[in-house]
Design a protein that fits this description.
By secondary structure, the chain is α/β, with parallel strands linked by helices. It has one domain. It is 31% helix and 13% strand. Strands 1, 2, 5, 6, 8, 9, 10, 11 and 12 form a nine-stranded mixed beta sheet that branches. It has a two-stranded antiparallel ribbon with strand order 3-4. About 7% of the residues have low confidence.
Length: 423
């Protein structure tokens, strides 16, 4: 795992702990572990009318004021004299005008087609009411779906899976997290697996003996008591199902082109998984590298590279899956955003309010949702205020696109307010 020299110590420590945990889990299960484990949850049968959900988490606290710059707010340019994205009428590197007030950073241009076509909704000044600026706490509270509750361990998406009838009762896996360890978001969900590489999931060792070894292990686990027996046999069944999907030779539709970045490989394999219609209802994917304390690089550099990877990957998935009629909703979120002020090292520090994206053919897109609080009135004197709770966005998707009305179980202790962004 590489060390991000632009990130804070806590973010690097958190990333290192996650890597060690993933590595330990992989080593302990080396006899029959998959070669990779993703943050995905299996998508629901598109014929049922319910969507599969792809949850994308931008780890490190992405800078919403750069992703979707509020060029219509004069204070934006006062607070960020060198890092602000130029207004749309600028001659050099202008923002892409969305509605006369908000824009997209130039690196986010690949998302303009989905936005103008009505498939992409943006929610600004959103986030958690919790004031923590700790990556660890902020990520955890958002993933469990209940801020400031250290006693809750199941994830909001895991509770959705357990409280909703399966789209396909015969599915061997309902949710997948792309990575070596199941993300907190999916914790507690039945038939939920971490898989780092969908195209290379199965037994290690010689291919000539793989089938016989799998058969032996399946028989061996049949004689042990539950829950080990069910867990083992479900793993072996999942190996068989996934090995029948040609992930490595998958050809995207709609002229979509994925790059070879780890993020876009995860999206591409997710597309193949959903089209195979094997009963997956949810997929979780992480994209790190957003802790830009120094040399942020909004036009070129770390931030711009990350934005380009995010935007081109989502554009490819939109062309390949959503425009082909698949019922799927993609939600992109992050922990606290970045401070409204730029710092003295050409970066931004931990903030509060941020931005979310919701992508899908049943999304009321082409709009920027939320109440803009203005940058002349800052949270604790430093940060963008949160005017839309992140659970309002997630709850509307859960009810209207995933067909689950058990919101009090998915988001305990919270009464959401819908924005009208999902049909």
């Amino acid at each position: 795992m590489s060390h991000d020299r632009h990130a804070c110590n806590e973010y690097n420590q958190l990333s290192r702990r996650r890597f060690i945990a993933w590595s330990g889990a992989a080593s302990a299960a080396a006899a029959f572990a998959p070669a990779w484990l993703p943050r995905i949850a299996f998508a629901r049968d598109h014929i049922s009318g319910r969507d599969a959900i792809i949850s994308i988490y931008l780890r490190g606290a992405s800078d919403g004021l750069t992703l979707v710059p509020p060029f219509g707010d004069p204070a934006y340019y006062t607070l960020r004299p060198t890092l602000a994205i130029a207004p749309p009428d600028a001659l050099v590197n202008p923002a892409i005008n969305l509605n006369g007030f908000f824009g997209l950073a130039p690196a986010m241009f690949p998302l303009l087609e989905a936005y103008t076509g009505g498939d992409l909704a943006i929610v600004h000044a959103t986030g958690s009411p919790d004031s923590s600026r700790s990556h660890f706490d902020a990520q955890r509270y958002m993933e469990v779906g209940k801020p400031a509750d250290p006693t809750l361990f199941s994830g909001w998406l895991g509770r959705h899976v357990i409280s909703a009838n399966p789209a396909d009762p015969t599915a061997v896996a309902r949710a997948i997290g792309i990575g070596y360890q199941l993300q907190q978001t999916l914790q507690g969900g039945p038939k939920s697996l971490p898989i780092p590489d969908l195209g290379n999931y199965g037994l290690t060792g010689p291919s000539t003996s793989r089938a016989s070894r799998l058969s032996y292990l399946n028989s061996a686990y049949a004689t042990v008591p539950d829950p080990l027996r069910s867990s083992g046999q479900n793993t072996f069944s999942t190996i068989s199902v996934l090995n029948a999907i040609n992930f490595n030779t998958y050809v995207p539709a709609g002229g979509a082109v994925y790059t070879n970045s780890s993020f876009q490989r995860a999206l591409k394999s997710t597309a193949a998984l959903l089209k195979a219609d094997v009963g997956v209802e949810a997929v979780a994917i992480d994209k790190g590298g957003w802790d830009t304390h120094s040399n942020q690089g909004n036009i070129a550099g770390t931030m711009a590279t990350n934005m380009t990877d995010l935007a081109t990957g989502l554009r490819a998935f939109h062309q390949d899956v959503i425009q082909q009629g698949q019922n799927v909703t993609v939600v992109v979120m992050s922990e606290f955003g970045r401070r409204a002020y730029e710092n003295g090292t050409a970066g931004t520090d931990h903030g509060h309010g941020n931005v979310m994206f919701v992508l899908g053919r049943n999304v009321n897109g082409g709009q920027v949702y939320g109440t803009w609080p203005t940058l002349s009135s800052l949270y604790q004197g430093d940060d963008l205020q949160v005017t839309t709770d992140f659970r309002d966005v997630l709850a509307e998707v859960v009810m209207r696109r995933l067909g689950n009305s058990n919101l009090s179980q998915v988001f305990p202790g919270y009464q959401p307010t819908f924005l009208g962004l999902a049909s």
